[in-house]
Structures are given as structure tokens and as C-alpha cells.
């Protein structure tokens, strides 16, 4: 099948076409079920349905695909019809103009005088500087304050500097308290993605005792997988995505559009070192693809690193993991998280195969800064 035409609604057939070994790997990791949702619109609804969705038939019988990761118990529900809904992309320049209009009362405008510092001081990058978070969710919780107020004004060099500064903060915090070893990087872009301040910034946390709960759960799931099947979960996960046309490997980093995303367009980057320039470039390139090709302005980036020093639990084979998601229109008052996402499974409108096509076109060609 032409990879340019692959869609999530054809996943069953795509899996059947895989080589036997990869097909077995897929079924080991993922469970897929599909069903038809039937509805009977009234005649008065027909013109609106045809305008919104293209045809009456597409609405009367809808295919719903449910994907569950058997190893981590992450789950997503896809209805291809939802991806057909017309979407009005808000012009990025208008979004940025609205962001800049809110810069009048900026509490991060003067970080040296208006923000606290960590007990081990500040880390200064070329395009950012650190501060201590005023309302912490761990003992070591800092901010990476961008020189740019506008969080969308990032370039390759700036993103790499943000990440490098974050890593130096983690090293400094660990030197200050060697028992703090579990590092997590957070970037929430705009209020829609959970940012309380519009000024561009990321957050860094370093914990002790054990990693944050979901990361520890992933470690244990991967360890159980290795014990049961004798292979690395993350290697097998990437192989399945790559064989389906959802992943690429670039400069040693494994990048794929995830089949069980927590929210729209989830893209995963697996790497070996936070300090590696190729990893930092991969994060930039995914973000640039989101912003420039997929019209994403509100997004979340989470990067989980293995412990910074020796610990009692087994972290062998656990990579550096970056996860990036789209959070929707920045000024949309509705939430993209509801009861289903909180307590059941994620409801996803974007098609991972389309996300993968955009990523491949962007990452395998030079990206303008």
C-alpha cells in the first residue's frame, strides 16, 4: 500500500501486511478492536452534515478504532470521522500578536530582580536564565526563563540552548544534593497547555527516592516485558512503528507518531543522552514541524531522563524519552481533557499516519530556522 494514503482506519489491514515477526511484535504490544457506530440523522440535518463531514454516509455508519498498549495500558480511541471535521487554523502571526499584547504586566520580564534563585544559584544560557519556582511541586523545581517573551519565537539554536541550560541545572542541583537523582523537563506552551504565564518558559524538577509515578510505572512495565520476552520494550515498540511507516531514525534518535497517544499528534523521541546535540536538534525539529507544518501553537513537551547517578532499581535499557503533544487552539475555551481522558482512554482526532507523514517530510529535509 502507498504510504502516502495510509490512515488509522485501515490499521487492521496494515498490520496483516507486516512481516510475520513484526506482526507478532505488534500483537504482543498492542490490542486493536474496531466497531461501527450507527446513527440516524433527521432530514433537516443533512445539509449541515454534508457541509461539515462531506457526506451523509460517513456519519450514518462510523468506524471506531480502539488501541490499547498491553504493556503500559495506555489507550486511545480513534474515529476517522473526527479527523474529517473542517478546522479553521488560526494564523500564527495573529496568535503571536495576541501573545505579545499580554506582555504589559510580565512578571518574568526582569528575572534577576523579580524572580527567586535556587540555593545553588542561577544557570545562564545564551537565550535563557534559570529561576527557582515560587510555588514548587518538588524540593528542586526551577524555571528556564526564555529571553523571548513569545514562546513560539524559537529557533534551532534557542531550543538547544533551553535544553542545554536545563541539563546544566539538573547537574548543578544534583551536585548540591547528591540524593536528588530523578530529572524531568516540562515545557507548557500557552495557557491552553497548562502554562500559567504567557512569557516563554520551561520547568525543571529533580526528585529523590524514585522517579515520578508514571515514569516509574513505565520502567516497571519495560522491565516486566524484558523478563517475559527477553527483549527491550522500547526497541520493539519503535520497530513496530517504523515497519508501519510511523517512525524514522535520525542521527541515532528514534522518532515516531505514537499509536496510543495521550493527546493529539503525540510524537515520541527516544535517545541516549540529554546533553547530546542530535537529541536536542530532534526535539527542535519536531517542534518546528508542529508549529510550521501542523499549525500547532499550544503544546506540551515532557522529557524523562534515567537517574543521574546509581540507584537501587534496574534502569538498564531505559532510554531518554521525549513526548510532545498538540493541545489545540490556544484561545479555545473548551478543554481537550474530559472524563474519558482522566478515567478511561484518550479520544483522538488526529491520525498518527498523517502526523508521521508530516514528520518525515520535515525531518528528512532541511528545516528553516
Architecture overview:
The chain has two domains: 3-83, no CATH class; 92-363, HIT-like (HIT family, subunit A, 2-Layer Sandwich), CATH 3.30.428. Helix content is 35%, strand content 22%. The chain is built from 13 helices and 13 strands. Helix 2 packs across helix 10 (233-243), helix 8 (156-176) packs across helix 11 and helix 11 (277-293) crosses helix 13. The chain starts with 10 loop residues before the first helix and ends in a 6-residue tail after the last helix. The mean pLDDT is 93.
Q: Provide mean pLDDT, rounded.
A: 93
H/E element order = HHEHHEEHHHEEHEEHHEEEHEEHEH
Secondary-structure class: alpha+beta
The parts where pLDDT drops under 50 for at least 5 residues are none
Shape category: globular
Topology, number of strands? 13
Individual helix count: 13
Number of domains: 2
Biggest sheet features: 9 strands, antiparallel
The CATH topology of the largest domain turns out to be HIT family, subunit A
Distance between the termini: 34 Å
Helix content: 25-40%
- CATH class bucket of the largest domain: Alpha Beta
**Which percent band covers the strand fraction?**
15-25%
Strand order in the largest sheet: 4-5-7-6-11-12-10-9-8
Assigned CATH superfamily of the largest domain: HIT-like
Fold blueprint:
Elements: H1 11-16, H2 20-29, E1 30-38, H3 46-53, H4 56-60, E2 61-69, E3 75-78, H5 80-83, H6 92-101, H7 111-114, E4 128-132, E5 140-146, H8 156-176, E6 180-189, E7 201-208, H9 213-229, H10 233-243, E8 247-250, E9 253-257, E10 267-271, H11 277-293, E11 299-304, E12 320-326, H12 339-343, E13 346-348, H13 352-363
Parallel strand pairs: 3-13
Antiparallel strand pairs: 1-2, 2-3, 4-5, 5-7, 6-7, 6-11, 8-9, 9-10, 10-12, 11-12
Helix pairs in contact: 2-10, 8-11, 11-13
Amino acid at each position: 500500500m502507498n504510504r502516502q494514503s495510509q490512515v488509522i482506519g485501515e490499521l487492521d489491514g496494515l498490520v496483516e501486511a507486516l512481516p510475520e515477526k513484526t506482526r507478532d511484535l505488534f500483537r504482543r504490544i498492542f490490542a486493536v478492536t474496531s466497531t461501527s457506530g450507527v446513527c440516524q440523522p433527521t432530514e433537516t440535518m443533512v445539509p449541515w452534515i454534508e457541509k461539515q463531514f462531506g457526506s451523509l454516509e460517513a456519519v450514518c455508519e462510523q468506524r471506531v478504532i480502539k488501541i490499547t498498549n498491553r504493556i503500559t495500558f495506555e489507550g486511545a480511541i480513534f474515529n476517522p470521522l473526527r479527523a474529517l471535521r473542517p478546522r479553521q487554523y488560526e494564523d500564527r502571526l495573529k496568535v503571536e500578536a495576541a501573545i505579545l499584547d499580554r506582555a504589559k504586566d510580565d512578571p518574568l520580564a526582569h528575572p534577576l530582580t523579580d524572580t527567586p534563585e535556587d540555593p545553588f544559584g542561577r544557570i545562564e544560557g545564551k537565550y535563557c536564565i534559570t529561576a527557582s519556582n515560587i510555588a514548587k511541586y518538588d524540593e528542586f523545581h526551577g524555571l528556564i526563563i526564555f529571553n523571548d517573551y513569545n514562546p513560539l519565537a524559537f529557533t534551532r539554536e534557542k531550543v538547544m540552548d533551553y535544553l542545554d541550560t536545563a541539563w546544566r541545572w539538573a547537574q548543578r542541583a544534583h551536585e548540591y544534593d547528591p540524593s536528588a537523582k530523578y530529572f524531568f523537563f516540562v515545557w507548557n506552551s500557552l495557557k491552553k497547555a497548562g502554562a500559567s504565564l504567557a512569557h516563554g518558559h520551561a520547568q525543571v524538577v529533580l526528585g529523590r527516592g524514585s522517579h515520578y509515578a508514571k515514569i516509574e510505572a513505565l520502567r516497571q512495565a519495560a522491565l516486566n516485558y524484558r523478563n517475559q520476552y527477553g527483549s527491550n520494550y522500547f526497541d520493539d515498540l519503535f520497530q513496530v512503528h517504523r515497519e508501519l511507516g510511523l517512525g524514522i531514525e535520525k542521527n541515532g534518535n528514534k522518532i515516531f507518531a505514537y499509536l496510543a497517544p495521550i493527546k493529539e499528534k503525540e510524537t515520541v523521541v527516544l535517545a541516549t543522552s540529554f546533553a547530546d546535540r542530535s537529541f536536542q536538534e530532534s526535539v527542535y525539529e519536531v517542534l518546528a514541524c508542529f508549529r510550521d507544518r501542523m499549525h500547532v501553537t499550544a503544546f506540551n513537551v515532557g522529557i524523562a531522563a534515567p537517574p543521574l547517578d546509581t540507584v537501587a532499581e534496574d534502569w538498564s535499557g531505559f532510554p531518554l524519552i521525549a513526548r510532545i503533544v498538540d493541545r489545540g487552539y490556544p484561545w479555545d475555551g473548551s478543554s481537550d481533557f474530559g472524563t474519558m481522558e482522566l478515567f478511561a482512554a484518550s479520544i483522538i482526532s488526529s491520525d498518527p499516519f498523517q502526523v508521521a507523514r508530516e514528520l518525515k517530510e520535515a525531518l528528512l529535509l532541511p528545516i528553516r530556522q
